Amino acid sequence: MPEATGARARQREQTRRTLLREGRRLFAAHGYADVSLSGIVAAARVTKGALYHHFDGKPALFRAVLDEVQEEVADAVAATADAEPDPWDRLTAGCRAFLAAATAPGVRRIMLVDGPAVLGWSAWREMDEANSARHLADALAGLAASGVLADRPVEPAARLLSGAMNEAALWLADPRAPGDPDAVWEALEPMLESLRASRGPDADR
């Protein structure tokens, strides 16, 4: 019966979305180590069997939550950057947007703290490259192709800049002593400017 089959599919998808929502809420509030499967299924009001129907266990659910968070951050960065007509302004706006998105409540702990610890650095890095880091690398490659960046390899610059921004986001969102966004940008802006090709003494006149 197609109608019944469709209703079951919608119910399964709803259960999955609920598990993701409640898992994300709990992971963000308490951290991966302090969240139990029992707590997740209780919050989602489903059985452990329903959870295992969608995910192999807590690590798999966390990975799905992390993927969702990283995609949201990447989308926010891309939307902000794409609103700027000038290619260099797109890069700087994207960097600022990343710092804002990565330090948002519910993002920092999942994406920058627990993500590498739970999945391992290699797996986390692979996911990061598929989302935010890829946008950064693409932006730098575009600037290099148009001559805005100095003639040097793009990949090392992308990796170094990505690492610097991840560390800056952790510092900004540290609950013990939150960092100063203006201080971060004061340090980051010269790093970005150092990548630019020399424009000559009369470039800004």
User: Tally the helices: what do you get?
Assistant: 10
SSE run: HHHHHHHHHH
Strand content: under 5%
Radius of gyration: 20 Å
Query: Low-confidence runs (pLDDT<50, min 5 residues)?
Result: 200-205
Under CATH, the homologous superfamily of the largest domain reads: Tetracycline Repressor, domain 2
Shape: elongated
> What portion of residues is helical?
over 70%
Average residue pLDDT: 89
Protein name: DNA-binding transcriptional regulator, AcrR family
Pfam families: TetR_C_41, TetR_N
InterPro entries: DNA-bd_HTH_TetR-type_CS, Homeodomain-like_sf, HTH-type_TetR-like_transc_reg, HTH_TetR, Rv0078-like_C
Keywords: DNA-binding, Transcription, Transcription regulation
Describe the structure.
The protein has 205 residues and is mainly α. The chain folds into 2 domains: 1-55, Arc Repressor Mutant, subunit A (Orthogonal Bundle), CATH 1.10.10.60; 57-205, Tetracycline Repressor, domain 2. 75% of the residues lie in helices and 0% in strands. The chain is built from 10 helices and no strands. The chain has helices at 2-30, 37-44, 48-54, 58-82, 87-102, 108-119, 121-130, 132-145, 154-172, 181-193. The model is unreliable at 200-205 (pLDDT under 50).
